[in-house]
């Protein structure tokens, strides 16, 4: 370790501190800011990211990177990540970055309007400009990183996995779904007819203060330490803040407890990842989470794998009854499973069950890859969307609001992000299988509301690894193999296809 | 206006944006941060202030200041303030700034312990180091500003007024108090004996949700727009945030409504000042508030001048009754006056009434001036405090916790700040008198809970002036004369010495 490397560490720590300030200001904007603060907040965030960019691209950084030497696995990985970060930051001309920021903001505003009107034509010109700039960005990053243009965008969200990894996995899933979905639907219909069980809705009411108390208690059970965390409300639930002070949000509806509860469990999974990052490399690239797919694996292993398991449903039923009263039958694990593990084809990604969710992602992955590659133009999106959706899920969206206008991502300039959702779901199943093998008492513990075995295993296998490894190597170290979607399809078979 | 001036404006805007981020992080730390976030927050704030300092002291700034030309009153004042800010920032060697930060933090931590034990000896060594560094700082600033050392420190809190202005004003007040205080006490005792009125305590209970609703409604009446503001809770009430998004806090006790209500009214006065700053010079030195004494004049004109006036007490009584119920007699304006305008000698500054409050400040001003001047050493503080307190208020503190250990200021390195409290109280009386002359319907409006005449006058005379004028010139423009303490003593005579 030489002086140049130490200078770089100090500089990256400073950049991360600016990032922490930005994270707090983002949380504030979503959770507590009065509406009149929005314009000033935008300027504060722009000033901070401008300064970060200057710190990252200053001439001294290139000089230090040329000289720097690091020893040991962690510091070597850290230095590699510094180089990658610097390469991406310097690959893009300032004029392109600024044009992108402006175009994204303009398009996002148009999109809100277009979605409300369900009129794609209203946003098409703005999206054309966004796509044009994304193509330019992808080309510049591709040149700097020697990846393909679309892979260079993907790398910005999840290092270590590209379209050629994803493509066959998604094709196989499409194949699997073609048989599994009708089968799951038939089993559900059969069970309904046989009344075993007829899903009995939870009666409610679900007063918000009791929901808040329950959500907080469950987040604590999963392992969130409220000395270093907050739980608040926002329109779109998210996990923000910093590793030392993680902020999760949810939204409450007095008609339903599932929305808030599973929202909190999902964000708690993200939060535990941040809390468990390696403290010895805090504020260094190698001390950060390994990427968006890795992050999603941690929210989904809590929400989907653990908290919708038979074991946990046995635990949560009595908790719900204690909070909201009502007849015990509704809280029976089999009834909760019928309510909360229901398969249903629908148009909206964020409402989808875990079996059909990947279909939503596969469609978006194919379209955005074609958009960046130039095989698809913006005008062709609605038709391509509807055609692809019909092929994947057998339904045709009745309008663009329930089709290609539903998600913010593209309209805000995020291309290459969507695959992370399904890569995360698959990784969650693979990690859960490995955790169960390593910790034979895991399910018995979950049935007692005890997350210790799962959490301890995740801390060691995932959280504590930071960004030392790319996505595939992280899975390899934790589970003995790179991403293997059969753990996910086996999980789905066990949960949805066992009559 | 030349290019150098425009570059400076852009740079100061950027520095102010960093300051806005810091303000939000400070608010967050006081109002909502989980305790485990404190250490990281300290590092985030240190990184932001380090970057601000670098932006302010970069060689380019000196070059631009040498070349810059500005025309018109506002831009000329702005350029002057840039020069002053730069002069102060470059006057101090980095090593001194860093040593000061460390010594202040260490001393503040010791002080919490010493105050809890009421043992000055525990903090004396740490305070000696703080004072040593403050003397060094004052000397360096004095050389750069050509002010006396203590005045150079005062300038950091309130530009445009020095110890030689304050000294005779405080001496005269001491003289006034010597007669006024026993007289006010005698009148109070007489009234009590004559039962006109016997102060009837408000019965309560005062449930916190109703207090919150009332406080918010009153802040809105005074003129705070909650599209650009929040009201929260914190241990020490304060006004923070930014002009576009101002954050006030208070604390609630179920036993008393006065504490929270007057706390909110006080902070609302500060908040209105921030909200009313000149938008055309937002994020420029001339667009900021004129200093701490000016700021305190705005909180006190709302809390003390307006909201403890006979007129407003007529309005607030029925509001309180509507919120908390109970017998109407307790809400009678004369009873509220007897409760909330009570004169009482006490040891604690923050609990003091407006007549005795200046005595607390005068004592601190004299001691801190002597400390910076070298006529007093740290070891001599407790004796000098007790002797001075006895001379001013006729009481001897029973221990140092109720004496020289009560305030955080010195132990955190703040010397030259204390006079602002009393300068603000005096300015508030002077401004109120001018406002009443300019707006003859002001009190009739207050009796209806209508702050429009007062607020409109303050916006024009104070808030909208930003930092264009120093403290004395601001008062001269608003009231036709520099600080004239007789408006304050006349106000006190009218309120406390009219049998």
From TrEMBL, chains A, B:
What is this enzyme's catalytic activity, as reactions?
Answer: Release of a C-terminal amino acid with broad specificity, except for -Pro
Free-text comment on the cofactor: Binds 1 zinc ion per subunit.
Q: Does the keyword Aminoacyl-tRNA synthetase apply?
A: no
Which EC number(s) does UniProt give? 3.4.17.19
Gene3D superfamilies, alphabetized:
1.10.1370.30
Any idea which positions bind Zn(2+)? 266, 270, 296
**What are the entry keywords?**
Carboxypeptidase, Hydrolase, Metal-binding, Metalloprotease, Protease, Zinc
Q: Which residues form a coiled coil?
A: none
Q: Which GO terms describe its molecular function?
A: metal ion binding; metallocarboxypeptidase activity
| Protein origin, superkingdom | Bacteria
| Leader sequence segment | none
Q: Do you know which InterPro entries this protein is assigned to?
A: Peptidase_M32_Taq
Q: Membrane-spanning residues where?
A: none
Which residues constitute the catalytic centre?
A: 267 (proton donor/acceptor)
Question: Which co-factors does it depend on?
Answer: Zn(2+)
Q: Does the keyword Protease apply?
A: yes
Role description: Broad specificity carboxypetidase that releases amino acids sequentially from the C-terminus, including neutral, aromatic, polar and basic residues.
Matching PANTHER family, A to Z? CARBOXYPEPTIDASE 1, METAL-DEPENDENT CARBOXYPEPTIDASE
What protein is this chain from?
Metal-dependent carboxypeptidase
